[in-house]
């Protein structure tokens, strides 16, 4: 399938999930994170959820990472297709951007080269680890600046798309894992 078709399909599917289901699924996803061999790393980048888009709530994963004394890094849009990355601390203040994404107002900037693991928002993914996001290219540009061995983990309420994504571009970054309520996919 084409990315624009998948975006429409999965946005519609996500609107059918109730807030309580989304909360339950998000907790299950956080528990599944424990199954992945990522615990020897130091810097974990994670998106902050867009509540209005019914995205996976990343707060349970953030709480899990902080409970294991990991450095949690969150993004802030800094330009067209670019983000800066800030260390999450007890004093981090947030403001929503034009897309409704909570972002740190300021703080300690962390370079992409330091980041070991990235949790990625997505709408859909296929059995090859190709992913479909919102189409703005922020994560592809960001992941291109990360080390080649940085682990890329998608978070989704839905399983893998049956058909391969047909309009994958050479600069699209594939996932290493995708976590769903039913299972953890490894690519």
TrEMBL record:
<keyword id="KW-0479">Metal-binding</keyword>
<protein>
    <recommendedName>
        <fullName>5-formyltetrahydrofolate cyclo-ligase</fullName>
        <ecNumber>6.3.3.2</ecNumber>
    </recommendedName>
</protein>
<dbReference type="Pfam" id="PF01812">
    <property type="entry name" value="5-FTHF_cyc-lig"/>
</dbReference>
<dbReference type="InterPro" id="IPR037171">
    <property type="entry name" value="NagB/RpiA_transferase-like"/>
</dbReference>
<keyword id="KW-0547">Nucleotide-binding</keyword>
<dbReference type="InterPro" id="IPR002698">
    <property type="entry name" value="FTHF_cligase"/>
</dbReference>
<keyword id="KW-0067">ATP-binding</keyword>
<feature type="binding site">
    <location>
        <begin position="3"/>
        <end position="7"/>
    </location>
    <ligand>
        <name>ATP</name>
    </ligand>
</feature>
<dbReference type="GO" id="GO:0046872">
    <property type="term" value="F:metal ion binding"/>
</dbReference>
<feature type="binding site">
    <location>
        <position position="50"/>
    </location>
    <ligand>
        <name>substrate</name>
    </ligand>
</feature>
<comment type="similarity">
    <text>Belongs to the 5-formyltetrahydrofolate cyclo-ligase family.</text>
</comment>
<dbReference type="GO" id="GO:0035999">
    <property type="term" value="P:tetrahydrofolate interconversion"/>
</dbReference>
<dbReference type="GO" id="GO:0030272">
    <property type="term" value="F:5-formyltetrahydrofolate cyclo-ligase activity"/>
</dbReference>
<dbReference type="InterPro" id="IPR024185">
    <property type="entry name" value="FTHF_cligase-like_sf"/>
</dbReference>
<dbReference type="GO" id="GO:0009396">
    <property type="term" value="P:folic acid-containing compound biosynthetic process"/>
</dbReference>
<dbReference type="GO" id="GO:0005524">
    <property type="term" value="F:ATP binding"/>
</dbReference>
<keyword id="KW-0460">Magnesium</keyword>
<feature type="binding site">
    <location>
        <position position="55"/>
    </location>
    <ligand>
        <name>substrate</name>
    </ligand>
</feature>
<feature type="binding site">
    <location>
        <begin position="131"/>
        <end position="139"/>
    </location>
    <ligand>
        <name>ATP</name>
    </ligand>
</feature>
